[in-house]
Design a protein that fits this description.
This protein has 151 residues and is mainly α. It has a domain at 81-144. Helix content is 56%, strand content 4%. Strands 1-2 form a two-stranded antiparallel ribbon. Helix 2 packs antiparallel against helix 3. It is flat, with a radius of gyration of 29 Å.
Length: 151
């Protein structure tokens, strides 16, 4: 097996593509695919070979299990809209942190480009203030409508 020679590119001299470097990754992907197929096959083995699993269905074993309690009523009951409103509000204010955290890291870390911070720092800061003002207005609106009051 010969060693590939370096390649000259506009960025400089780079090592040539060598498939041998990717063998560990290919082995890893093959192992994951094999494990996934084995798990899928194992889940269906009870249906394909019913004689290898114990089968003693009783009325108690066929009942739905709800944390050790006997089920009461129908499983088709409706949920209050309040659950969905709280979930949506959680997502909205959680996504706020997803936008604020990277901005704070870039704005207040010493690793940023000083020229960029001088030119665009004020504009980005005003945009973040507008973003926060929008969130405060949304929070005040939700509070005013009584979304946070559990009835």
């Amino acid at each position: 097996m010969s060693i590939p020679s370096p390649v000259v590119t506009p960025a400089g001299i780079e090592p040539a593509f060598d498939i041998v470097a990717y063998y560990p990754l290919l082995i890893y992907v093959a192992a994951i695919a094999g494990l996934a197929m084995t798990m899928l096959a194992a889940t269906h083995i009870g249906y394909l070979l019913p004689f290898i699993k114990p089968q003693k269905p009783t009325k108690v074993k066929q009942m739905p299990y709800e944390s050790g309690m006997d089920p009461i009523g129908s499983a088709r009951m409706q949920f209050d809209v309040k659950f969905y409103l709280i979930a949506i509000l959680f997502l909205v204010f959680d996504v706020e942190l997803l936008f604020l955290y990277p901005w704070a890291v870039i704005a207040y870390s010493g690793g940023g480009d000083p020229h960029w911070q001088q030119v665009f720092g004020g504009i980005v800061f005003v945009e973040i203030l507008v973003f926060l003002a929008t969130l405060v207005i949304a929070y005040a609106y939700a509070w005013r409508k009584g979304v946070f009051e559990w009835r």
